[in-house]
Every structure is written in C-alpha cells, then in structure tokens.
Amino acid sequence: MQGAADGGRRHTGRARYRRPALILGCVVACLVGCTSGAAAAGKILGLNAANAANAANAKRTATSPRRSSGAGHQPPSPADRKATTSPTPSAAPAGSSPHATAAPSHQAPPPGVSRTVTGPQLPRQVGALFDSSGLSGSHHCTASVVNSPGEDLIVTAAHCLGSTSDVFVPAYHDGVAPYGVWHLQRIVVDAAWTDDSSPDDDVAFAVVAPLDGRTIQSVVGGYTLGVGEGTGGRVTLTGYPATSQDPVTCTNHISSFSSTQNEIYCTGMTGGTSGSPWVTGDSPGTVMGVIGGYEQGGDTADVSYSVAFGQSVQNLYQEATSSDN
C-alpha cells in the first residue's frame, strides 16, 4: 500500500508559459486536477485505514494461542495446544530453503507452505488419533507407525495420549478408514512427562493391538526411528488439523530452537497436528521428531517444534518394544 499512497501524492512538473492566456488556462486546469487528486487521495487514505483495521483484526486472531478439538474452542481430550488459525504467507521467510519442494501436484508449493493431501497421495504410515468414539467422534492428534520387532508401534506426542481408549486410523480421509480402526494396548511415556509434563519429554509410543490377525506395520508399513539426526536437514511434516477431514503436508529445513528442541517453519499446522511425524530421507523415510515439545508444539500455526530425538527417546523405544516377540 505504500506505493499506492506515494502515487496519490506524486505531482508532475510542468514548464511555465509567459502568455497570460496560457497562464490562466493552466491555473484553471490545475484547480480542477487538484480537486480530483484530493478526492482520489481521500479514497486511498480511506482504503488504507480500512485495510489497516482488517489487518489488525486478522493479526489478533492469528496470534491468539488456543486449544482446539474441531468444535469451537473447546479443548480435545487430551488437550492439543497447537494454534487453530493460520495466516498463509505467499513465501517462506528469509533463511528458508530456496528450492521448491517436490510434490505429486502439477506445481510444488514454496518451502514452508502446506498443502492438502488427498487420496493416493496420503502416506499410509500416518494417521489420525480419535477418542473411544472412533470415526463417529473427532480426531484430536496425529501419529505414525515406526518399525519395531513386534510390528505394532506408533509414535506421537505425549500430550496426545491420555488413555488406551484412543484409536488410530492410518491414512484417514473424508470420514473413511481405508486400513481400518486400530485400538491401543499400551502407552509408554517418560517418567519426566508423567511427573511434570516436561516439554523435553513430549514424546510417546503406543503398542497397537492386531486387527483381523494382522499387525499395523504389516498392513501400512512403518518409518525407521531416527535418533541423533541433528538439525539443519530437510523434513516433511504430515498432520491432521482437527477442523479438516484431510491432512496437510509441508517440507522445509529445520533449525535448532534449543539444545533439546528443533523448530520448523510450516504454515497451517493447526490444532490436531500435534504428534505429526518429522520425516527425512527416502521413502518411506526416517521419523526424527514429532510436533510437540515447546508450548506442546507451538502457539502459532506457522512455526512448530519437536523434541530432538536422542538417547531418552531411544530408551523409551526400547521400553515400548521390550515385550515384543
């Protein structure tokens, strides 16, 4: 809008004529032009004021941290702190990868900009977490399958799992469970999370019960668990906003937020995307983080956080697989 305002104030210099008649004509023309210019400037200033008010309202909406369950602003069970609204910028901020992310669509979005994933593009290893109501209820978080000896393990954020009554629906979309509804048998979280909800331990594994005699990993595959992957690499996030029946996905470079947490710029990661896997490497890839940690994943929709998977997560994984055959 700065350019428009400058244009409204800009005047063009004119040569001065010595003949009185011409001088008088110029004066008349100038008076008419100035009147029109003032009216135009008033319209521009009026638009600027209206736009400024709209922008201020949008900013307040976009930056207000809240909890979401997909119905109003009531918290899900368990609560998910990811923000529920997202301004969608046209480009990633300075410092993001300059290379467009490869995607199965005709034109890949810029790095850090999310897009909706539908149909066959859905990664089978990623799914939505529902409460005990299953598909008749609402999904509140995201989880993914990780390779394990028992082929029965999912990983998500610790704040996403409050009870084994939750169910996991891989590749969920549009009210459909293409690979079935899977019940949880056991939840494994760190004692530091149980004691005081430590943000550095916001990671959980859950053992999934067989369905029709088959394990979850044998049906949809799994990601390799990545420990000590560091920061600065490029990852892909896929998660389920609580207000959508389809997941969103985004690829960008990560950076270090602290000695124990990583962060990433990805738009549209709203309430419900907590637990979304941070996947790196070739298909199916390695999961080296989940949305969670600081502010239980972040208090804005465009910046997300994850515990840096290290020895404590490796220990948690070993505990979760200790009863596997």
What does this structure look like?
This protein has 325 residues and is α+β, with helices and mostly antiparallel strands. The protein folds into 2 domains: 2-9 and 18-63, no CATH class; 115-321, Trypsin-like serine proteases (Thrombin, subunit H, Beta Barrel). Helix content is 23%, strand content 22%. It has 5 helices and 14 strands. The protein has helices spanning 2-9, 20-63, 191-196, 216-220, 311-321; strands spanning 115-116, 126-130, 139-146, 153-156, 167-170, 182-189, 204-208, 224-225, 234-239, 248-256, 261-265, 277-280, 286-290, 303-307. Strands 1, 8, 9, 10, 11, 12, 13 and 14 form an 8-stranded mixed β-sheet that branches. The protein has a 6-stranded antiparallel beta barrel with strand order 2-3-4-7-6-5. The longest helix has 44 residues, at 20-63. The protein is globular. The model is unreliable at 1-79 and 85-106 (pLDDT under 50).
